From TrEMBL:
Keyword terms, alphabetized: ATP-binding, Kinase, Nucleotide-binding, Phosphoprotein, Plasmid, Transferase, Two-component regulatory system
UniProt record, GO biological process: regulation of DNA-templated transcription
Keyword Glycoprotein in record: no
Residue intervals of the Histidine kinase domain: 406-619
Xref: Pfam families: HATPase_c, HisKA, PAS, PAS_4, PAS_9, Response_reg
Response regulatory domain mapped to chain residues: 639-760
Protein name: histidine kinase
Amino acid sequence: MSSGGSGGSGGSSTEHGERGAATDWARVLADATLEGVVIHERGHVQFVNAAIARMLRSTPEALVGRPVLDFAAPDDRPRVAAHMAAQSEHPLIGTALRADGTTFPCELRGRTMTADGRTVRVVLVRDVSERLAMEAELRRRERALAAVTEHSPDVITRYDREHRVRFMSRAVEQATGVPAAWFVGKTLREWGFPEALITPWETINDRVFATGCAEETEFDFTGPDGVQRHYHTRVVPEYNDAGEVEHVLTTTRDLTALKRAESAARDAYGTMRGLLDQSITGVYVIQDGRFAYANTRLAETFGYERSEELLALPGIDVLVHPDDRAVVMGNIRRRIRRGRGTAHYAFRGLRRDGRVVHVEVHGSAAPYKGGPAVVGVLLDVSERLALEEQLRQTQKMEALGQLAGGVAHDFNNILAAIAGYAQLVHDDLPADAPLRDDVAEILAAATRGVGVTKQLLAFSRRQALEVAEVDLAAIARALGAMLRQLLSPAIELRLPDAHVSAPVRATAPQLEQIVMNLAVNARDAMAGRGVLTLGVRIAAGPDGIERAVLEVRDTGHGMSPDVRARAFEPFFTTKRHDQGTGLGLATVYGLVRQFGGEIHIESVEGRGTTVTVSFPLVQRAPRAAEPAPARPCPAARKRVLLVEDEAPIRAVTRRMLERAGYAVREAPNGAAALEALRGGAAIDVLLTDAAMPELGGVELAREVAVLRPGLPVVLMSGYAELSGASVNGDGSVTDVTGCRGFVEKPFTAERLLAHLAAALESGKE
Ligand code: ADP
Ligand code: MG
């Protein structure tokens, strides 16, 4: 192959300049350029530079003389040939074939030229593999970007400084019903978006243009389906090469579903919180010795208003009674250490006001906000414990009452006989008889004994009482004068206001006894100075029914819990033998219960005592229950059938009756009385004991009502429950058929006669 080439314009030269005298500048130039240079004549290479030799991984020597098309990839040769034939000067992108068989993309620019009378084609070759790769990468990126924007559920928009849309992603059609392409080149105002939205949008865009800082905004927009949706938009700057913000890009996302879920979650949380707060149990989470959560009920249990106050406590131990702290804190620590299981225990809590509250808790270990915690529920059981204690008390008092009542009843009959006979003897003795004083002593002792048994009977509620409407407030006021006598001058006495009235069904002497016993106890507790308050008011009970309430309050030494628990027991006293019998509160207790009332002691050691007594308030018009005042026997020689199983009582009663002029016929029991009546005994009035074995006074009265209608019956009893006459609880006997009167045992002759006279009187009507 010839290696002759032409290049320079000056004379002949050799390829390798070392032999020529003049420097071959043309060759230097050709080798200096990075572009490949090929000169061929009718398709045969005449000249190549170093760059093309490198590109083809060959040497200039190997290239010169070869057909130029050898260096085009076989597929490309027809195109290159056509380009050559057309002497085209347009650049051509083709594929070059290297000597080792590899290829590379190149850009060719050819030019046909004449030199020394020869027509040659000068071809400049540039390796474009890098550029093409870059372009391909760019296109790939653009495609990826397009895929993102096109398939994104977000609306992506590019705005220029005039607020014109330069790009709009496809999602806008879903939101507005308008295809994305229609927005391009327009402003949103031109599209008729609501003014109220456009102004804030444009303001934000302007700001991002000015500051280059990204911004966010939210808005509502009603779509073509008429549904209002909530959107969030993020606006970011887009810089040009000069570092200026040329566009802003906005990404607008539909947050409706998220918002809905959020508000549903908030609602659900609110409902949960509400339910928890209204729950009757306290609910808590304890972490690091403090409350991490507490519901309102828990706060209330400890006397706080809001649960936040509990969360603010430095530690939970302030809510625990000092004596129980070690146990409670130990339980919590153990729960946390084991990390499982539930503990159930009770302890004494401390309310904010210092009062003790009895609580029960169920606590279990559970992680809370990533840390170990105890989660639990707490129940205030103070009321339940108080009720249980009250029940125990009531049962104790019932049992004591049974015992005391049984003893007192028997004693009462014995004392009645002693007193009755003593009275008769006393009355029969001449005024100057020396024995008269002795008998008077017997009488006095018996009367004192009757007093004791009466108290016991009162406690056991077996005293037969003739109840009537009595004003509790008036009784308390009336006792004022007497009480002042009993109290030392340094004790201030406060009485109910004159206008207060509180009618109850009771008996005046027993109400007086209640007030007196309580007042005396109060005095004893005050050591000569203090304030004693007798308050009477009307208040609704827990059942909503109005009650008359008596409060006896003192500022004395108060009671220990132990004393309070036993205070109502008969013969329980903390006083010296000669100062207290221990029967005061027992009597009060029995009387109060007998009148359908309640009694309650509140006392703090060293801070005084308040005894509260309440009775059902009288709502009906009162009825007369007291018999007419005693009158002398109206008709002498009235005939009485006296029924009494206790012989001594029967005998003494007979004596009282005969002395008053009655003709007395006796019967030792109900059956005998009935027999006498059936036998046609002529009598004007029946006087019968209420409590008798087999046929009691009440049953007898019923029989009599059939046998002798209209025959007045008078019941005698010291033993209310068995009499049946007070079965109705208020001591009234008018409900018992035929009963005209009721006389309480033990009785004086005067009382007995008054009742009989009244019965006979009413029988005449
Ligand atoms: P007594 O007065 O004879 O001791 P009570 O039955 O009236 O019997 O009272 C029983 C006990 O209850 C008293 O001994 C006393 O310890 C206590 N107590 C009663 N009332 C009061 C009071 N107002 N303040 C303090 N302690 C009282
Ligand atoms: Mg007393």
